[in-house]
Each structure stands twice: as structure tokens, then as C-alpha cells.
Write a structure and sequence with these properties.
The structure holds two protein chains of two kinds. Chain A has two domains: about 5-85, Orthogonal Bundle (Rna Polymerase Sigma Factor, Chain: A), CATH 1.10.1740.10; about 100-185, Winged helix-like DNA-binding domain superfamily/Winged helix DNA-binding domain (Arc Repressor Mutant, subunit A), CATH 1.10.10. Chain A has helices at about 5-10, 15-35, 40-55, 65-85, 105-125, 130-140, 145-150, 155-175. Helices cover about 70% and strands about 0% of the residues of chain A. Chain A has eight helices and no strands. Chain A is mostly helical. Chain B has helices spanning about 15-25, 30-45, 45-65, 80-115, 125-135, 135-150, 160-165, 185-215, and strands spanning about 5, 10-15. The relative contact order of chain B is 0.10. Chain B is mainly alpha-helical. In chain B, helix 2 (about 30-45) packs across helix 3 and helix 4 (about 80-115) runs antiparallel to helix 8 (about 185-215). The chains are: A mainly alpha, B mainly alpha.
């Protein structure tokens, strides 16, 4: 079944069909939640909660981009958690969880873990809206238009948030250059 | 910081370049006019060119971040899905029921405070009663109450309302029927209010509980 058929079946209450959609999007959803929240466990909880909300709401899905609809639910769930966890420190990423690129040697894998830690710490310093926009654009590779749809804002807002987020992260990385592996310095 | 450069009559500041244009320039999201403006500026301004390099590098690094493997499947088991569906239906129903109970309670309570409370002993607030009778407000409230109360008891003891209506102190032609119903005494109304309040509290607590259970589901 392709996505349209899965959505149609899920709207009729077919759980297996909805699970097909979950399988297709769970990597993206979980990684988005992790980049926003900076904590693997919180990201897993947020992803599960978002999929359940989506399952309950899928009847009301009125066409358009399912991906944008789903990512919007995820960013909303993350926002609720973000407000609650504000004061709690986040746990570092377990190297165990991430997927090495094909044929990547152990050394460069380790370096990418280091890069990940440094950049994630920088992302965490951004205000929420900028953080979401930056992750959607530069980590997930979505277009301005898709990001505007997901965040419910105008193209101009997306542009300026992204611009400020990138500049802020760049400044942070320049200030904390020692955290970046040499190969990755700016 | 604010130096501005002129080329072909157009001027553009480093600040505007850096804050507004460079990021979109990297993504190829500028109009051709803006792009030309930026490129012309970059060819002359070393600082902004360096800014572009570091910004571009930052975007590249973000693209190199490792993808995390999901710690478990987030698929929803069929039995769990069934209970989620049940719970969310129950939640939808409870929400409406609670809202209705609150509304009903508010109407009864408002009627109580506005009209029964004002039932005159002596001397009656004639002006207020006249106005209300003209607007037909007491009658409307009486109708709402009628639904919720048991059938009339013929030989009820005279209530304050009844006494007041029996001895009208003003010669107005509008009859004060609403205040003459013996079964609508303050006692019965009080009981209705208490029962409604109880129902409302139970409903809202159940709604909150169901809401929390729907939200607390965490998969397998």
C-alpha cells in the first residue's frame, strides 16, 4: 500500500495501516524530537505521545502533506515538554544509538559523535522557535515552505528565524571551538 | 559595523547583509536582484565574505550530524489502539457532558440568585419586579426549572413567593405566576443545585482522569 492508501485505511480506524505510517516516519520523528529536546529518553516519550495523538486525530486529517501534519504534531508535543523540562539538565547522547554511515571507519564515527555533542549543545542554547526552524531546515532538510506549514508561520518569519538561528549557532561554535574535532572547525 | 557601500546607486549595509540576506543566499532563496547585490558586496567586503564562509560551514556541519537509531518501534499494538480509541471517545463524551452540567448548574444558580432571592417579603422591590415581568425573564427561567423538578405537590405549605403573590402590593396587570408555584420552593431548588454540583464535580474529575490516561500511554 502506498501512503495515500495507508492514510485512507487509518482514517477508517485500521491500526495496522497507521502503524505502516509510523514505521515510515518514526526515524524522522524521533530524530526531530531528539534535536529539539536534546535528550534521547524525552525524545522517545515525545515521539510515542505524538504518534498516539496523531492516531486519535487522523480522522480529522484533511489531505495535504501528511509529513507536515505529523511533524506539526511532534513539534507541538515537544513544545509542551520543552516548557516542562526547561530547568532540567539533559543527558548526553549514547553513541550506541546512532547509525554509522556505510563503510564509516570507527575513528570518523567517533569524531562524528563528538561533533554531535558539540553541535547539540549549541542548538540547545537557541530559543525554541529558532531551534525548531533550524533543525527542520538544516538537519531534516525541509524547504522554507514546508517549515512554514509545520510551524504555522509565514515564509518571512521562517527566513528570519533561520537566519538568526544559524548566526547564533555559528557564534556559539566559534566561541566553543575547543569542543569541535579539528576536522570540523569553522 | 555600519559601513555602507555604493555600487550603481544602490547601497547596502554589512548589517543588512549579515542579518537578513546571507542565510537565504546560502539556500538560493534570494531574488536575482538581491543576489546580485549580495555578490557585489561580498566581492568588496572581506568581513562579510568571512561571515558567509563560517555560516555556510555551520550549515554543512548540521547536515553531517549522525542520524539516531530509534530506541524501539513506536508502532501501536492493536489492543492498545482499541483502548486508546475507547478512551478518546469516552473523553469526547465526558467533555460535552461536563460542559452541559456546568451550564445547567449556572442557569439554575443564576435563576435562584436573581429571582427566588428577590421574592419580596415586605416591602417588595416593585420596580425591579415590574421590569423583569415585562421582559418575560422570570417566565423563561421558570421553564428551565420545570424540566428539572418533580411534579407539583398540591398541598405544599405557602412559601415566601406564594405569600407575596397573593398580596400584590402594586396594581400592575402582569401576573406574577412564576412566584406562585409551591413546588418551586427554595428547598427543592437547593436540592437540585446540590445534586447538580455533585454531578458536575464527578464528571469533571472523571474527565481529567480519562484525559491523563490517554496521555500517559507510552507504548509497549
Amino acid at each position: 500500500m502506498d501512503e495515500k492508501q495507508l492514510i485512507a485505511a487509518a482514517k477508517r480506524g485500521d491500526v495496522e495501516a497507521f502503524n505502516g505510517l509510523i514505521i515510515a516516519y518514526q526515524d524522522m520523528a524521533y530524530n526531530l524530537a531528539y534535536r529539539i529536546l536534546g535528550d534521547p529518553d524525552a525524545a522517545a516519550d515525545a515521539t510515542q505521545e505524538a504518534f498516539i495523538s496523531a492516531f486519535r486525530a487522523v480522522r480529522r486529517f484533511r489531505g495535504g502533506s501528511f509529513k507536515a501534519w505529523l511533524l506539526r504534531i511532534i513539534t507541538n508535543v515537544c513544545y509542551d515538554r520543552f516548557r516542562r523540562q526547561k530547568r532540567r539538565p539533559t543527558t548526553p547522547l549514547e553513541a550506541l544509538y546512532s547509525i554509522p554511515d556505510r563503510k564509516e571507519d570507527p575513528e570518523s564515527f567517533a569524531l562524528r559523535q563528538e561533533l554531535n555533542r558539540a553541535i547539540q549543545a549549541g542548538i540547545q542554547t537557541l530559543p525554541y522557535d529558532q531551534r525548531v526552524t533550524l533543525v527542520l531546515s538544516d538537519v531534516q532538510g525541509l524547504s522554507y515552505k514546508e517549515i512554514a506549514q509545520i510551524t504555522g508561520s509565514s515564509l518571512g518569519t521562517v527566513k528570519s528565524r533561520l537566519s538568526r538561528a544559524r548566526a547564533k549557532l555559528r557564534d556559539w561554535l566559534l566561541e566553543h571551538e575547543e569542543l569541535l574535532p579539528e576536522r570540523y572547525r569553522l | 559595523m555600519f559601513k555602507s557601500r555604493r555600487k550603481g546607486g544602490k547601497s547596502i549595509s554589512c548589517e543588512r547583509i549579515r542579518q537578513e540576506l546571507l542565510s537565504a543566499y546560502i539556500d538560493g532563496e534570494l531574488s536575482s536582484e538581491e543576489r546580485e547585490l549580495v555578490e557585489a558586496h561580498l566581492s568588496e567586503c572581506e568581513e562579510c565574505a568571512r561571515d558567509l564562509r563560517t555560516l555556510r560551514r555551520t550549515v554543512e556541519l548540521l547536515g553531517e550530524l549522525p542520524t539516531l537509531r530509534v530506541p524501539r518501534s513506536f508502532a501501536i499494538p492493536v489492543p492498545a489502539a482499541k483502548s486508546i480509541t475507547r478512551l478518546s471517545r469516552a473523553y469526547a463524551f465526558l467533555r460535552v457532558a461536563t460542559a452541559l452540567a456546568v451550564l445547567l448548574l449556572a442557569i439554575v444558580w443564576a435563576g435562584d440568585v436573581l429571582f427566588i432571592g428577590r421574592a419580596p417579603s415586605a416591602p417588595p422591590p416593585t420596580v425591579v419586579l415590574e421590569l423583569e415581568a415585562e421582559r418575560g425573564v422570570p417566565f423563561a427561567t421558570g421553564m428551565v426549572r420545570e424540566k428539572a423538578v418533580p411534579p407539583p405537590v398540591p398541598a405544599a405549605p405557602p412559601t415566601r413567593e406564594r405569600v407575596s403573590a397573593a398580596k400584590p402590593t402594586t396594581p400592575q396587570p402582569v401576573p406574577q405566576r412564576e412566584f406562585t408555584r409551591p413546588w418551586l420552593g427554595p428547598g427543592a431548588l437547593r436540592w437540585i443545585e446540590i445534586v447538580l454540583l455533585f454531578v458536575t464535580i464527578v464528571l469533571s474529575l472523571t474527565t481529567v482522569m480519562v484525559r491523563r490516561r490517554t496521555k500517559s500511554f507510552r507504548g509497549e
